[in-house]
Amino acid sequence: MKLLDTLHRWTGGLIGLVLALLGLSGTILLYEHLWIGFPGTSDPLRGDLTTVAATTERLMATPGAQGIIYADERFGLHQLRLGKEAGAYASQSGDIVTRWASQWERPELWIFDFHHHLFAGDSGEWVIGIAGLCGLFFVISGAILWWRTRRTFQFRLWPKRMSRPSIVWQHRDLGILVAPLLLISIVTGTMMIFRPFALGVVAPFGPVAETAKALDPPKYKGGPLAEKPDYTTMLTEARRRFPDAEFRILSLPRGPGDPISLRMKQPAEWLPNGRTTLAFDAATGEVLGARDALKLAPGAQAFNMAFPIHASKVGGWTWRTVLTISGLSLTLLGSLTVWTFWFRRPKQVKRPAKKALAPA
User: Fold this and answer.
1) Angle at the Cα of 150 (from 148 to 152), degrees rounded to 5?
2) Which of 59, 69, 146, 358 lies 20 to 30 Å from 299 when distance is taken between CA atoms?
């Protein structure tokens, strides 16, 4: 038990700040649709084919346009991708509301980049994934360590005093209260980064090999991108195949021979941008393939629920409040852990040296 306590403290001291910052940034992102204050953010969704097709043709004619993230019921503006970091928000009629040349001009973009990549791309994802595994260890080991002192439990949102014993006491008792919430946030977040971990979590839903195959996107090859792709025809075909689905993301080819991709969201899907996809030949606009997310392997469908749960894209205000408690608790627990470990460590008690007895 002493070894477990030592591992719990040292791991918290080393990785606690990362978890605290992830908890804080994640909590802020839960409410991003409320603090982006441009005209049109609260407009009702206009998802009819005529409106979406006309707007798509207009926006994709913008120089440098690479794709569109379509408006949804929570956020009434389209996001136009104009390059690696450049972009714009546009109304559902196709009028540009604002532009940016770098993500640093939009708080919601750089906070998202920090929360998902720590501003370090794939390397940052690895750090976050490791922090997630450490967080999972904290929750489990903390519950085990708390059991010994369960009779002294007291509910505390904040330490009684900013002394090390009071902070440790509050950390222990608050930690056990929010442990189930932290477990959900950490597990779902880590699933999106470490595929082997995710496959282990969803293993009860079906064979791992079947799930892994379903999660790998199909590959298609087509011709070079046409000078003026017929987006209206593509969207019309997509709506014919999936009449109840919303248009979510349109993406131009990333490389030669790659298709134009369209993601849609069917009503039964939890994932906000859906996993129902169509691939169109970039040269002719013909359908190369389509994938119905509701017909994927059960394990893949379970995996697709991780992000909506993690980011409060389901459950309304009730679940968003629950995740807010989880994020703020992680911020508080992680930051105070680092502070006490590095700046409030117990002082070593100096014992007086014993005097040697004089020889008789």
Assistant:
1) 115
2) 69
